[in-house]
Queue: 4 jobs
Job 1
Amino acid sequence: MAYYRPYHPPADPALVRELTATQNEMRQRVRLEPLPGLPKLIAGLDSSFPTPDTILSVIVVLTFPGLELVEKVYNYGPVDLPYVPGFLSFREAPNLLLAYEKLTTQPDVLMVDGHGIAHPRRMGIGAHIGVLLDKPSLGVAKEKLTGDYQEPAEAQGSRSPLLDKKTGELIGEVLRSKERVKPLFVSPGHRLDQATATTLALRCLRGYKLPEPTRLADHWAEQFKKEVR
């Protein structure tokens, strides 16, 4: 996920209170539970900000476990909310929903480039979009947002728990998706548990750092950017 983060003045305290209240309400709706069965279709979701005021959201749908591309869509438009640390999902979710409306196939699981519950208020974009759509979802992020962990072993597939700094709660797993590359941070978003989220991330690896759903979403984002420039 590409982040455009130039300097912004401090956020309006009233806006921060409003967004915090919304996240706390949405957090109450998150359900962490095993997936009833393996998905047949899995989607990869990615958003980037070509300019400070525009957003490009891409969704690809793949078969599972074959990971063959079924469909790809995008939506490009303005983004009105200023960047506020910890609340990026509010900038991304509206445009992702517009992209989702363009799909002609319905994925069983959403794999989002970003965090699920591995977020200070347990509401990263993977959880946020999962709750809004009431779909099983997980987040796969390239950087840690919160929590403590031990570096996993160098072998592909090695992992270690990501724990809340204060409570010790399991909020994700740190996954070595490829040897000699930095690990990924995998966390459930909604209607999935940690074991299922990690299993899906592992089964979607095809020799790259990123699992195929988010890797291809990122790949097509670069292609679609040429169309909107």
Job 2
Amino acid sequence: MPPRLGGMKTLIVYAHPEPRSLNGSLKDLAVTTLEEAGHEVRVSDLYAMNWKAVVDAEDYGPYASSPLRVAQDSGRAFDASALTPDVAAEQEKLLWSDTIIFQFPLWWYTMPAILKGWVDRVFTFHFAYGVGEHSDTKYGERFGEGTLAGRRALLSVTTGGPESHYAARGINGPIDDLLWPIQHGILYYPGLEVLPPFVLHSTDRLTAQDYPEVAKAWQERLLTLATTEPIAFRRQNFGDYEIPALHLRPGLEPADRTGFALHIRG
């Protein structure tokens, strides 16, 4: 069930080095808009936190093996409640929240390195992956199930290029394809329901006169977080896929649909 608007707990994970940037303004507007609507809001401002973006043995303390095995070691440290305090705090925020907003610029076709480093360190084994039954009939709790199931996620993304560059025939490729590794591979994987992204194009050409219209559109999205239909990604363990091959069963694809779109229902 989607969360009630008036009682939502929202975590904003924000990744931009300049507080006076458009991304900073969108983050600030999200905080005020949601709090005025009755939400509780927490912000992880990664640059202000001086977030450590690289995984290394220090993350796992005495549970780090030699040679380092990131998956297994992160899981052992998680099981022992021995992850570093910064990582443990972010996991606690995720479990506290029922809605997570990721605010960032699209840099080199993906998220800023500091945000990817947040994912690498916070989404540990036994927390975000490697959970649930693994058998001939179920391949773990992921892609529609998992630790973060029941929560919603929204990407708020800015791009420098115009919208036409990110269209089906645009030179950068469709924006939905560029965001697929994040929306499907990072967010949906541990069970988050992913809302259609809020994308602003041509932001390096945006003027102060343009901002009120942008702000209005952003506020409208924020105030419909609880009622917006999530992207209809196919769930892994509910009949659409052959297990353990994890191939989409023949005949389920709509006519003329290929690529990433095969894995969206309807």
Job 3
Amino acid sequence: MRIVVADDQMMVREGFSVLLNAMPDMEVVGEAVNGREAVARVRELKPDVVLMDIRMPELNGIEATREIVAADGRTKVLVLTTFDLDEYVYQALRAGASGFLLKDASARQLAEGVRVVASGEALLAPSVTRRLITEFSRLAEAPRLPAAAPGAYGELTERETEVLILIAQGLSNAEIAGRLVVAESTIKTHVSRVLVKLGLRDRTQAAVFAYEARLVTPG
């Protein structure tokens, strides 16, 4: 997996680079000190994953994420934050980030987080992430995701709606398959259809949509 680390703090960039380069299946191919440089690095290097800090000069991580997602459908963005309830994280998820990770995460958590988003899954399993999405989807004043018009979920079948709700609750394909007692391949098909019908990019946007559509409510 090819990775770009974007953070305005040199110690953070170098620390993450050392940790990730120590993994046999990962290589840090570039670093960026601000959002504008992160966008340029992605355009130049075509990485699989970008570790993106939110609070950076020139162009913040939210806007950089939006530009990267719009220009490159393959590169996944994993947002880095210092606080587990960072007010900007929700907006980064809406911009297309595949999840977020705290900067004090262990080397194992960091590597696993990169693997999760690189595989196309959303990094939504930790309870803190579900709490964040629930809270900020409830409080957000911004409109819904542009591609997901109000009532769009009415196009989903009953099973697809059920799968969407379980995605929003942080379950993986394998966990959803176990819950519904079907093959994992069947769940992958359902997830693909949900994304196509709602006009969404990935599981993270699907989860955000489910909260905004009130298909999932704060527990």
Job 4
Amino acid sequence: MVHTDTVRTIVGIIGNVISFGLFLSPLPTFVKIWKSKSVQAFKPDPYVVTVLNCMMWTFYGLPFVHPDSTLVITINSIGLAMELIYVGIFLIFSTWSTRKKICIALLIETIFFIVVILITLLLFHTTKKRSLFVGIICILFNICMYAAPLTIMKRVITTKSVKYMPFYLSLANFANGIVWAIYALLKFDVNVLVPNGLGALSGLVQLILYAIYYRTTNWEEEPEKPAANVELSDSTNRA
């Protein structure tokens, strides 16, 4: 009979592979942004939120916080590097006002992360207490990561178009949530189970919207580009 820990490790490895696919899924979007030299109507929100999410889960998986979580560390550290690249591309091709908002958000995230580390190490002296404290925060931010596409989902319903909601990102979100929920159930970890269960639900809703509005999407529509004069004026006023 296969031991539960062995099954959990196998599921965790599968989860790493799918999560890697999740982090890779926006690649066609960023290729499009790079070629057009414009972020068009794509939003940086999901990627900025995911930066903090990956930092928190990497910290959660460290042995002195939550032992036996190597697979959580590996995928989230890789994800952090990839999300920073995505955010960097947004910084290159966004307007000045958007760049400013992204930089402020990243600064706030960094300060918050440092504060969490200090509180964890100075106030909590057992892995059980550290896991509980960091785990609660991870749940909140993982929910934020999965909730971030709500702005895009609202746009889909309003415009009856899925042009700016990448299909593979939605599919990867759904598969990722399912696999990590199973991983959490095998060695009950509520901190992993709750956000990934909600993530699977979020991904499912996105797939349903994609199925509903795929036929009404005008794929030939010209991409939205900010007017050059407006962009120059905004940059001059805020510099």
